[in-house]
Amino acid sequence: MGTPFSMESSGFDGDRKPGLADRLRDAADRLLSSPRFHHWASAFPLTRWKARREARALFDLCGGFVYSQILLACVRVDLFRLLAGGPMDVRRIATRIGMSDEAATRLLDAAVALRLVTRRSGGRYGLGMLGTAMVANPGIAAMVEHHGRIYRDFEDPLALLRGLSQRTALSQYWPYAGNEQSSALEGERVRDYTALMAASQPMVAAEVLDAYPVAMHRCLLDVGGGDGSFLAAAAQRAPDLTLQLFDLPAVAERARMRFDAAGLAARATAFGGSFQSGELPTGADLVSLVRVLHDHDDDDVMALLRA
Asked: Which residues contact 178 (CB under 8 A, 6 or more apart)?
């Protein structure tokens, strides 16, 4: 069994000795951890730019939670879609988002600092560069709203990492995670996360389909395909492509409804099942795994890739 980590052992076990590269890195760590060196580097012209850039990066780490909450507040009051209609003054914005003028000004100024909003003439506020991106990609707002659950789970990050949080907001939202009976989940349990994936799918689908010509294939199988959003996009790029979708039975049923509504029922088939306990459909010469592999444990992923 390895010895516990300590500064003296430099993380090496037993009789193993650190090499030259490790010793140099240890020496650099000691130097860079010195307050005296930081003071010198911040003042010396050749290192000042680097010291200030790293200081800003560290400040962003410290302020990251605040930034995320400002963005979440903007999303929840639908600020970006409101300003998409044109710049407004504070009083009008405050009335529309249900805040006092003072509170609205505080939120708007914070959004300005994050480049989500910009100040315009006459005391008005309009969309900033990042705010326009929020309007152009509605799926981002859906993901930001979803992250509110992550923030609740991270209220005590140590308890989460140590497994002391028995029921997390995310585990309730994604009911298939760690659930051996995921195939038996009913439609109501999969509704919210399926809608979220569908809302954020266009951003991913466009990049995937721009990068790879699916039309050169005969049949595309989308594993974990949700409500069929990706296959519907692929169908537009490749009119002759046969489509297969594989997901949990309750999710596959939603995909069938989408295919019917889009007039794809003749060329698209949705199969219900679980890749953890069942076999994948056959006949496809192209398989897509859009935002699936990163969402499961390594053993499950390797089993899926070997299927």
From this structure: 171
